[in-house]
């Protein structure tokens, strides 16, 4: 009752031809997967193309190698209603674009292919993107549904109705060359597959989104009802060997030829680049581990379906043998990934050692330069000490000269003023002696002497007062700067 009301509440947001979407919504709510439907419905504008002209769905029918590409949903409905097994191909322009199917055509696919709500889990990750995100999710879902879409146990009695079906859906991630002029020529891509098998009509309907380029599209009826899975998985594994060889070549360039230490021009950017390569290897390792789990689910689903359908043991053994071959291939790729990661660990250790040695060399060179600077500073200090000693001697000489000048200049000034009247050289006449020349000094010469002494004392006093004033002004400025 709750599922019916919920479906009615969302009916206004559906296209005119929405029987398939209604069925998928009802089945999701009946099985407790309404969160998948709600998430899908909220993102549907970024998942499917809006224009019918951009919609292009490929359909391959049993016994034909030709793929019919259909735009209109009416024509798609007509082809899908034919009674034979079919392969439906949904493509994308690139890994960040929408799926090339309009909502009307997708509703037809939902109605006639028996899509389960679990498949929405993979479609949600295939919408339009503007940056790398949701790059790790991988899973595989095996279901058996009876009348009304309820998922049940394939061994129970509810599987006798006309609408009972087996369903298996999963996604794979693989690597293909993108063809752009970039350092890394590989891109990680995603594909999803849904396989629905009707026990009544014994017909299969396959829905594949963005199949690998190595996937050979045809609907040759094999002995096992799940034989197409083998070709699909083989297409996803086609490039792993070449992809890992790309990493091996990148690593061999760095370690193939032993070089002297000084020829390794290693910088921090090289370690960052190695970190990027290690991240890609671990991502590939995670993809292979999830692929191994997918193989396990496919094997269990195939065994249950073979037992229920009563397939010949030889046919089922052949399917398991092919699956074992692919599983061994995956195990080998996982071992290669482990080897490359260990090689990257060795490279990382070598890079760290080289960078450490570079750091030690820089530290040693810095120490030498610091030692040279200290030596130069010591020489400079010694020269400064010599200059200070010479300056002290010159200062002492200047002080002596200054003291002499302080006494000499005032005396010279006074004597130059009084010299013409206090002291002279003239002739004298004495009766007892002969007439001659003689130095004569007046008795007032003491006035010149006193004037010279007073003027010298005044000069010294004025100099002392001026120096004292300057020192006091300097102390006041320092005290004002110390106050907060």
Automatic annotation (TrEMBL):
The transmembrane segments are 400-425, 445-468
Domain CorA-like transporter, first and last residues per copy? 68-216
InterPro entries per UniProt: CorA-like_dom
Q: Which domain of life is it from?
A: Eukaryota
Q: Which keywords belong to this entry?
A: Membrane, Transmembrane, Transmembrane helix
Q: What is this protein called?
A: CorA-like transporter domain-containing protein
